[in-house]
From TrEMBL:
Belongs to the beta-eliminating lyase family. The keyword Glycoprotein does not apply. Transmembrane segments: none annotated. Keywords: Lyase, Pyridoxal phosphate. InterPro entries: ArAA_b-elim_lyase/Thr_aldolase, Beta-eliminating_lyase, PyrdxlP-dep_Trfase, PyrdxlP-dep_Trfase_major, PyrdxlP-dep_Trfase_small. It comes from Dactylosporangium roseum. This is Tryptophanase.
């Protein structure tokens, strides 16, 4: 008799299913051509496995849908708001909670209320909309990732940390008076889904207090960061994920959160604050642009799903299963001959496209090329995090400053895909890895100034042609 399964199954069973499309190779080629070779422009019904984002793409639970049926749609003071507020207060400890329709709305309100033109916002890594919203507030986003993040292959457990020495140099240097905010993203989405340690957060708090600089968390994946802290930081091995998450929130002066990730819903976000005066400014901004302060652009049923989701997301059984699923996919891809950022995070894994496609120079966008090939070969949609997204361009869309790495992010929707789906993804990558030289580079045809990766249009280079 077997003593038990080789691996634990997910802590849920499937109750509702949705069909997924399987296009022919020619249909995929035509679809990508019409999309300007930008996966963001593809229609969802043209995608077989959608790993473009984990934001708002997860599956809700039966308990969340049951709660949604009780949603109170009153304009002000709805019952659903008070349930949501109380749940968030209990989790974060912040006295002031503002709901918003998603994280970037919270960024706009917070940065517009807190940052002044000419100031600096320091982060471990600003992600795309965060970077843009800092700039739109007239401030300068500056990334200070820890040195360990530069080694994609090492097993350093907390590559998401901010560089404490660099942060202290800025705060004590001639630009120190310009620093208006320190924002730490947990987990560090821009650098391989790597977690931030509690020791790092504690040190940031002390530096910020010493220099009277606000310290905020961008906490879209607070629960996943808490799980990785529990697994990798010995001092917290006996803490629950919820206890760790609460401690992280307590270390900061406030937070901005996209709840489309660890809120386990399709929409929603929040701003959490301690300061009364900052709350008053943010609330006025919210009411003018998002909605009244007890709904913030969300329906009552959204608030109910979020309140329930915030309970479910810190369940150790759920987090253990999700982390194990990503780790298995990472191992299958590594076994197929494709390197990934190590150690694996939870919400996504990052393919080292620069290493897989050495025949493509950065200005030929190897990360984007690999992403396009995944769609052409298997209907798999994903996102580039390389020179197309992060590189510096001139006015003619020519690459001037390459990104430090050429990566492709495979973002994992929560409670959506099975191991069989992931085996398919690994098999498509394995076929690409057998003949990587067939993958062609791309050139930009048109591009917006901000957030170009969302709406850029490209075309493939002819064989043997260099951009």
């Amino acid at each position: 008799m077997p003593t038990g399964p080789a691996k634990l199954p997910p802590p849920y069973r499937i109750k509702v299913v949705e069909p997924i499309p399987f296009l022919s190779a020619e249909e995929r080629r035509l679809a990508l051509t019409e999309a300007g070779y930008n996966p963001f422009n593809l229609r969802a019904d043209q995608v077989t496995i959608d790993l473009l984002s984990d934001s708002g793409t997860g599956a809700t639970s039966a308990a969340q849908e049951a709660a949604a049926a009780l949603g109170d749609e009153s304009y002000a003071g709805a019952r659903s708001w008070f349930r949501f507020r109380d749940e968030v207060r209990d989790l974060t400890g912040y006295p002031h909670i503002l709901p918003v329709h998603q994280g970037r709305a919270g960024e706009r309100i917070l940065f517009g209320s807190l940052l002044k033109p000419g100031q600096i916002c320091i982060s471990n890594t600003h992600f795309d909309t965060t970077h843009a919203n800092v700039e739109l507030a007239g401030a300068e986003p500056r990334d200070l990732p820890c040195p360990e993040a530069a080694d994609l292959d090492s097993d350093e457990p907390f590559k998401g940390n901010i560089d404490l020495d660099a942060l202290e140099r800025v705060l004590t240097g001639p630009e120190g008076h310009r620093v208006g905010l320190v924002l730490v993203t947990i987990t560090n989405n821009g650098l391989g889904a790597q977690p931030v340690s509690m020791a790092n957060l504690e040190a940031v708090r002390e530096l910020c207090r010493r220099h009277a600089v606000p310290f905020f968390l961008d906490a879209a994946r607070f629960a996943e960061n808490a799980w990785l802290v529990r697994e990798r930081e010995p001092a917290y091995s006996d803490w629950t994920p919820r206890q760790i998450a609460t401690r992280a929130f307590q270390l900061a002066d406030g937070c901005v959160v996209s709840l489309k990730k660890d809120g386990l819903t399709a929409i929603g976000g929040l701003i959490g604050l301690r300061d009364d005066d900052l709350y008053a400014v943010c609330e006025a901004n919210l009411i003018a642009t998002e909605g009244f302060s007890t709904y913030g652009g969300l329906a009552g049923h959204d608030l109910e799903r979020l309140a329930q989701g915030l309970q479910e997301v810190v369940d150790p059984a759920y987090l253990r299963s999700r982390a194990a699923s990503t780790a298995r996919l990472t191992q299958m891809i590594n076994d197929a001959g494709v390197d990934t950022v190590q150690p694996p995070g939870i919400h996504a894994l990052y393919l080292n496209a620069g290493r897989l496609l050495p025949h493509l120079a950065p200005h030929e966008f190897p990360g984007h090329s690999l992403g396009c090939q995944l769609y052409l070969d298997g209907g798999i949609r994903c996102a580039e995090l390389g020179s197309l997204y992060l590189g510096g361009m001139d006015d003619e869309h020519q690459l001037v400053t390459p990104a430090p790495f050429e990566l492709v992010r495979l973002a994992i929707p929560r409670r959506v895909y099975t191991d069989t789906h992931f085996e398919y993804v690994a098999s498509v990558l394995a076929d690409i890895a057998k003949a990587p030289e067939r993958v062609r580079g791309y050139r930009i045809v048109s591009s917006p100034r901000l957030l170009r990766h969302f709406k850029v249009r490209l075309e493939p280079l002819a064989p043997g042609v260099v951009a």
